[in-house]
Sequence to fold (97 residues):
Amino acid sequence: MKLELNSSVYSDLLEIMEYYDNSVGADLAAEFYAEFRYCGKTAADRPYSYASHVGDLRRVNLNRFPHHFLFRVVDDKTVRILVVKHNRRDPSFGFDR
Fold:
């Protein structure tokens, strides 16, 4: 399936990567992004292997980082990531996207 990102996901990723870059270094920010890309590709390849989280949203937990993203299967060809957030962030953050 094709992977799409909601326009707000770019700012989510930038915020997270800036945090890692400023607190630890550019290498960790790059590692976060690489893991996000890998998990996004996995979600696009096998979207129904992830349990429903709320309604038709599905959740993917990153393995190394305390973050996750929520996605929706739009049609038989498209998966759309709606939000990327820290596991301790307000649970309702991003549901309005």
Observations:
- The radius of gyration is 13 Å.
- The chain has one domain: 2-86.
